[in-house]
Amino acid sequence: MASSYRALFRLPGTIPLTTAGLLARMPLSMIGIGLITMVATARGSYGYAGALAAVFAVSSALATPQVARLVDRFGQRRIVPIAVVVSLAALAVLLITFRLDGPVPVIFIAAACAGLLPSMPALVRVRWVGIIRGERERTGKDAPELHTAFAWETVLDDLSFVLGPPISIGLSVGLFPEAGPLVGGVLLLLGAGWLLSQRSTEPRPGRQGVAGGPLSVLRIPAVWGMVVTLLTMGAILGTVDVASVAFAERQGIPAAASIVLAVYALGSALSGVVFGTLTLWRPTRVLLRIGIVGTALTTLPLIWISTVAELSITVFIAGAFFAPTMILATKLIEESVPAPSLTEALTWSTAGLAFGVAIGPAVAGPLIDELGANGGFRVSLIAAAVLLVLLPVVARNDPRDGGAASSRT
After folding, report:
1. Better-predicted residue by pLDDT, 105 or 130
2. Which of 69, 184, 312, 326 is buried most deeply by CB count within 10 Å?
3. Please, which residues bridge with residue 283 across strands?
4. 2 burial type by CB count under 10 A (0-12 exposed, 13-18 middle, 19+ buried)
5. Rounded Cα–Cα distance for residues 359 and 44 (Å)
6. 110 falls within a domain
7. Cα(173)–Cα(166) distance, rounded to whole angstroms?
């Protein structure tokens, strides 16, 4: 198993690439929860906190694909610094205004502008595509599997969502309310700067081949299909997170929620690592259908759990299907989208996941208040049912894209 990853990281520039990528993606999991903790700690209003985090999340989900389209057209080096500066400047305005107890409308406008983030996971994945394709062209020999690189990046996504929230919450509670989102902004600056300094792995912009219009890349069936798939999976993920917290509280051991969520991420990360070592001989769409069905069905036991131990086992199994399904969704997009528009397409999929993570708790919250944790788990079941209903549409073979191609690389 380790040999697959050793081969991957023997390629020039891959270790600093993945390290910078991990650093730069930490803010994705730190800023939103940091804003919630900041407001809840300093103002005691969860309604205010949730609304502010929702504005940031929705803005980010809508803005990042547009930033990615400009990146595809003009290159990472020209666009990413502008997006980072605008986002960090808006975040600074938000934190300073909040600290000084300034006008609430200014805080919300700043939160919307702070969402103008580049999708760091998409930027890194596009570089991996260029590195592996370039190695094959240079040597004329087999190179590491691209899905191994995507698997590794998915594991890093999981790691960032395991480490980011507790770090952000701890900083805001232990130091001062604004500390969590502030450190998230600093990590974005450092990580993006380090990534952009790595010129050798930066893909060339493809001005002539980039899809036009803010939604044009969604005309590719594989892209919108995977956006819908990941949005629904995100709703499952976000709902399980908030319902697990409520479940642990109702059991009288609220601290156990962190263990449950860590186990969920661990199951996903371990399966992602193992999946990345496999040689795939079946078409990506076939494997993706299996992953979608597995992801949906493993939510079913949530309605029967009665202890934290049972919940931990259930989410571990559910997590084991989550990462491979995300990896296959990413791979299907890579197979189906012209190279000049790949950053935008991957960013749309990331935005779909993030949007689903935001929607799930918003829908589940009132049900949890009314029915307890099981009310939240019912939302996961509904999302899983939607995923199964949409399966024939989102994972169908379509002659207009390359999704029917074999996933053997």
Report:
1. 105
2. 326
3. 406
4. exposed
5. 23
6. yes
7. 10
**Residue 108: CB partners within 8 Å, gap ≥ 6?**
51, 52, 55
- Written as six digits, the tokens of 19 are 């390290």
Give dist(CA 151, CA 139) in Å, integer. Answer: 24
Contact by Cβ (8 Å): 355, 234 = yes
The encoded tokens of residue 351 equal 């935005």
pTM of the predicted model as reported, rounded to 2 decimal places? 0.73
229 and 319: one domain?
yes
Query: 98 with 141, same domain?
Result: yes
CATH for 377 = 1.20.1250.20
The number of angstroms, rounded, from the C-alpha of 299 to the middle of its chain's C-alpha atoms is 20
Domain residue limits at 271 = 215-409
Comparison of pLDDT for 96 and 121, the residue scoring more: 96
5-62 confidence digits (pLDDT tens) = 777 788 888 889 989 988 888 887 788 778 877 887 787 766 677 678 778 888 887 8
DSSP characters over 16-47: HHHHHHHHHHHHHHHHHHHHHHHHHHHH--HH
Let me know if residue 67 belongs to a domain.
Answer: yes
